[in-house]
Amino acid sequence: MSADERYDRSKARPTPTRREAEAARKARLGRMPLDPKDRRRAERSVRNQSYQKQRQALRSGDAKNFPARDQGPARAFIRDYVDGRLRMLEFLMPIVVVAWFALILRSTSIYIYASFAMELVVVVGIVFGIMLNFRIKREVRARFGEEHVRGSGFYAFSRAAMPRFLRQPRPSVTFTGKAK
Hints:
- The chain has helices at 3-8, 18-29, 36-60, 73-83, 92-104, 108-144, 152-161.
- By secondary structure, it is mainly α.
């Protein structure tokens, strides 16, 4: 639906009065305590319950309760696209961890190789990230339209840079080894 179509439609009902609008807002909020400390405690409890529900959904794969950043068919496509094959970006984080431990050892020869490895990881990560960014944006634009492109490159990169066993939501496809 375009913006013009949205504004051309009449709402077919009168504008609510202030009293009706406030009553509706209070009904949406529920019965919040009047004491500010109790209200903050109740809001925190509701927020924590929502957060726990989202975390459980990420672990179980319940797509309707995913956080906003993971919802929608375009994000599901990006997850499947990234998880569908083994990528070099997955191996960069373990290399960084090993190089970081090597930097702690303070041995001069190991330090030189570890610092070179860290620099190489940064360059390789940027190059592979840019390539993945262009590919994923082209695919999302072709399949879902321009409105789903924003943020898709970073979402794909952040998912691809994470080792497979740490990804949330869990991968739903097994990698095939074929290029997509």
